[in-house]
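Hi R.,

Here's the chain you asked about this morning:
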Amino acid sequence: MREFLLASCLLLSCSWLETSQAQDTAAPSGDQTAALDAYIEKAMADWKLPGLSIAIVKDGQAVYVKGFGVRELGRPERVDAHTRFGMMSTTKAMTALAVAMLVDEGKLAWDEPVQKVLPWFEMPDPAFSRTITVRDTLRHNAGLGPEADLLWLRGDLDSRQILERVRELTPAYPPYSSFSYANVMYQLAGELVAKASGMPWDRFVETRIMA
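And the predicted structure, written out as tokens:
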């Protein structure tokens, strides 16, 4: 549901940007701002969202930044332009983009084995350890079940320690035979980015994608 709201807000934002470009304005008009505010507030009510923030960037400049609602149910603190939110799985898109950029640069290849880049990584199935590819890290079909995410939920292991424990998991199904959401595989993709680029994943995203 939250993903639907975000997509809807983005579509409305894109509609405003197209109109803005046609009018050659640097910021939304009062009517446009009021329409966007009303849409967001209605969507929040429909989806029972306590709070969110929206930013529209045009030509490298933030032309609309606003918070709506409260930071926490039952508390009075309001969301504003500086409220921080957990980004959660939006980072998966950044990770996939980072991998694709490195493939374009010849530093990774979609179908090269992960072990060619990270020789220490192993899956529960030794044979699959040798064949799992860069592409596979982004597809949620490597055979891991929900228990794989318990590794990073612990909070006391670094990225490599988490991934070194993947070999100890019990596969939920044979590789490629089913879809099962696995955050830990995107963590593996992040390690591929770090190794291929020579900088940590977060630094790559900051300097190569967000800059």
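Residues 1-8, 14-25 have pLDDT under 50 and may be disordered.

Let me know if you need anything else.
M.
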